[in-house]
Structure formats: structure tokens, C-alpha cells
Design a protein that fits this description.
Aminopeptidase, N-acetyltransferase, GNAT_dom, Acyl_CoA_acyltransferase, alpha+beta, eight-stranded mixed sheet
Amino acid sequence: MPVLTSARLVLRQVRSDDAAALFPVLSDEALMTWWSSGPHRSVEETRTYLEPAAVGNWRSWAITRAGEDIALGWVAAHDRRENVSEIGYILARPAWGQGIAREAVAMVLDQLLVTEGQRRVFADTDPENIHSIGLLTSMGFVREGYLRAEWETHIGVRDSLIFGLLRDEWLAHRQ
């Protein structure tokens, strides 16, 4: 898995030893409202969650500041079909409002759509997750679908919005 770098960020593979840094993110009840599982109760639970077997086919890049190897969150991608990936992300609340999520997601989109030449990336988000919807739409993603009662989560059965981005749309958006 390639390490992705910018002037201020380094995205590298998530490791189980990121558990202590990511536990505050994954134990934040408000932040975890829109996640597929409930808030974590211990660092050990987070460590288990980050194990490669738990991650499965997802490629997860830890978001770190250049010069600091402390995970602030991650951007993950899962190859769903040939040349099509699903993307997901989470970021520690103290890092919000600094453009970090936008920059990290853009780095992964460049990897998937430009470097790897995939044709499409999509994201699945809760209709009430206004922060995620705002990020996706500001990056050129288009709302493609509304799935009713799609997910059974720790807060109940939830609907889902699907947002998609094509390679040509991303290239145009970058300019």
C-alpha cells in the first residue's frame, strides 16, 4: 500500500499500534453516531478493530501530520468491482475545520482515480450526516441514490445516501 504525502500530511497504512491515538476518535459518542458500530469502550477494543483481519478488504490510510506519526483518523477504500471503489473516512474532532479531511480524501481520490486509473469512487453516508455530505458535495461527488432502511446500526435502522464521483469529474474538479 503506497504512502501518500503532501506538504502537511502523510497517509500511511493504519496499524494496530494506532489504537491509543484512535481510541478517542472511536470512543466519541457523537462522532460515532454515523459509524456502522457504536463507540468503543476500551483501547483494546480499538486495537482489535484495527487488526488486518477485522479491516478485511479495506485499504486504510492513517491520516498523520508530516513529521508526526500520530493517527488523527483515516481514509479507507474498498475495491467493490473492477475499477470501482467505495471510500470512507473519519477524523478526530480536534482536527476538524483545518481542511485535513478534504486534503486527505483528495490524496486518496488521486491515488484511486489518477494513479490507479479507476473509473468511479462512491461513498455511502447517513442522510443526517451533514458534515460528510458537505465534504462529498464540495469535492464534486453527486448524489446518486437514497436507500431506505439500508443499515442496522447501534442507533437503529438507518437510511443511506449514495454519492458517486467519476474519474473525469474528479479531473475537472481538481483544475
